[in-house]
Task: inverse folding
């Protein structure tokens, strides 16, 4: 068979070719076989006349119904599968399931007469003129499709056939990773960090490593793939802008609108941004895969994502389902959900562990299956749209069960609106200038971050008012009076008097006392101190000599100072410092 050339069919992009249009593209030898099968004889002179007569005969009352009764059960099932796919299916997909058509020229066709003993359901339908092979346009480009004309399909005696997608609920898991709004919390943390730190991305958009490390330590989930999605959605939603100095900053209007919205709306905004985003390529973030950007192929990420979400919409919220069973059901119902052309040979995707390429339909589970598992145990879980479960607690990627959350049901249109969120507790201002902020108070936390320093995160977030944070607020023209008024507003007037008094005193007199955390160098005598403070290899790590036998070490510099001391012949005692090493220390 000669592959047909593409043609613009009349009507919309969804319109199917008519029976006459399909017959006009059939080569003469096969057209004669089809005409013989339908009893058109003798044949008229020209091909258009043959096609017109054959089309009239095939569409005559009762003709298709009689032809249907003469089909084998497998041939009927093949036509049912086409009808379930809107009358078209990628040719490789159709023939993979229902068999091939032998390629023959007119001479061999006349000798072997394959229509008398077809080797597959596809071949039987091919020579009856019930299935055609034509080029169609898909979101990923032109592809060859197995197609049945709409006029014929309408006459098939088929009723109520549905795609073979069925998913049986599973039992409740022993261990559960519940759906959460941690992603919303970390989005607020990202915005707060950019509000208070001058982050200048490189030409490739990557943050400087120290900023990435500091931000990551403040997140509830430190998964790099999750952080990449968070960065992407922040840009996608227009939350970030670049100031004249090249630093990333939150864009006040869209950021304030999101922070001030209800939690359900915040969740929906992020989930919909991911759901509808053609520029976020989930396939390239599957941990077990390494796609090669050769420039010779591309995938439609939105097409694949929305296909899987359509199947997820059949899952009932609150019911647990096996991830493996969901993958198997999609493979049975719609294996080509991300490859409408059914071609499994032209994508260059390596296995992350072995480096070997995945080729052919045999790699479906390693590629398509892995993508589905990633969507469920990655973005769907991160965005608070599902809970994950299993026999024991493990990494979320390894969980074997999933359950749509209320937010997931909302996104899948199971519900028009999520349940009302409980009213969060107010933030708490403590006498030691620390502020405890419940996670749902994201707008309040963002505002507090402008005037207070990050401390840590537990269930609540902890910030502290310090001299440096008050100076930062002053640079933003935020007075201590405004700070106190804001805290009184959001803490229900419950702000200790000592806090108000301390802030007022700082506003009048500035910083009068200072506490520092650092590494103290102690030496045996003054002579050693003079040598250490004078030698080029060690003096650059001395921040301040505070006595004849003691000095403060530069922040993060003690590992290199220790190495320099060894090189000069001293064996330093590090027993009081090594266990305090944190992520900010440069080991040199």
Result:
């Amino acid at each position: 068979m000669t592959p047909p050339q593409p043609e613009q069919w009349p009507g919309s992009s969804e319109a199917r070719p008519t029976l006459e249009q399909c017959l006009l593209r059939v080569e003469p030898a096969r057209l004669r076989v089809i005409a013989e099968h339908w009893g058109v004889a003798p044949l008229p002179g020209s091909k258009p006349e043959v096609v017109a007569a054959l089309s009239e005969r095939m569409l005559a009352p009762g003709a298709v119904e009689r032809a249907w009764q003469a089909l084998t059960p497998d041939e009927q099932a093949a036509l049912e599968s086409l009808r379930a796919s809107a009358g078209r299916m990628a040719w490789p997909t159709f023939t993979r399931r229902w068999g091939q058509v032998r390629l023959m020229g007119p001479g061999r066709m006349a000798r072997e007469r394959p229509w008398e003993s077809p080797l597959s359901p596809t071949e039987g339908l091919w020579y009856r003129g019930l299935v055609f092979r034509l080029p169609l346009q898909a979101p990923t480009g032109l592809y060859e499709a197995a197609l049945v004309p709409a006029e014929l399909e309408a006459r098939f005696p088929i009723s109520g056939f549905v795609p073979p997608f069925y998913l049986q609920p599973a039992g409740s898991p022993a261990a559960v990773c519940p759906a959460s709004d941690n992603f919303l919390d970390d989005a607020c943390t990202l915005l707060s960090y950019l509000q208070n730190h001058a982050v200048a991305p490189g030409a490739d958009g990557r943050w400087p490593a120290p900023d990435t490390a500091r931000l990551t330590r403040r997140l509830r989930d430190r998964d790099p793939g999750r952080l990449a999605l968070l960065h992407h959605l922040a840009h996608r939603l227009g939350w970030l802008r670049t100031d004249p100095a090249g630093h990333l900053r939150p864009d006040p209007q869209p950021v304030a609108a999101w922070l001030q919205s209800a939690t359900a709306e915040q969740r929906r905004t992020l989930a919909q941004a991911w759901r509808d985003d053609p520029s976020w390529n989930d396939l390239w973030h599957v941990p077990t895969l390494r796609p090669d950007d050769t420039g010779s192929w591309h995938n439609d990420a939105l097409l694949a994502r929305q296909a899987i979400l359509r199947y997820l919409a059949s899952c009932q919220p609150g019911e647990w389902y096996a991830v493996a069973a969901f993958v198997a059901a999609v493979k049975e119902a719609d294996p080509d959900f991300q490859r409408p052309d059914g071609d499994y040979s032209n994508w260059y995707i390596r296995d992350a562990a072995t480096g070997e390429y995945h080729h052919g339909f045999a790699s479906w589970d390693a590629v398509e299956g892995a993508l589905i598992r990633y969507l469920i145990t990655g973005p769907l879980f991160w965005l608070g749209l599902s809970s994950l479960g299993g026999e024991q607690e493990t990494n979320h990627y390894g969980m074997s069960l999933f359950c749509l959350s209320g937010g997931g049901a909302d996104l899948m249109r199971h519900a028009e609106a999520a349940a009302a969120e409980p009213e969060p507790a107010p933030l708490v201002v403590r006498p030691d200038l620390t502020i405890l902020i419940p996670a749902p108070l994201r707008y309040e936390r963002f505002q507090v971050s402008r005037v207070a320093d990050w401390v840590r995160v537990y269930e609540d977030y902890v910030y502290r008012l310090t001299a440096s944070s008050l100076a930062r607020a002053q640079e933003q023209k935020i007075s201590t009076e405004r700070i106190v008024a804001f805290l009184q507003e959001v803490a229900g007037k419950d702000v200790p008097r000592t806090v108000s008094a301390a802030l007022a005193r700082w506003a009048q007199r500035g910083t009068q006392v200072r506490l520092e955390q650092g590494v103290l160098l102690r030496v045996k005598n003054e002579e050693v101190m003079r040598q250490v403070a004078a030698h080029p290899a060690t003096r650059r790590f001395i921040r301040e000599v505070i006595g004849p036998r003691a000095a403060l070490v530069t922040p993060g510099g003690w590992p290199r100072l220790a190495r320099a001391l060894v090189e000069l012949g001293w064996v330093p005692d590090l027993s009081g410092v090594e266990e305090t090493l944190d992520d900010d220390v440069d080991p040199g």
Q: What stands out?
A: The longest helix spans residues 182-196. The radius of gyration is 34 Å.
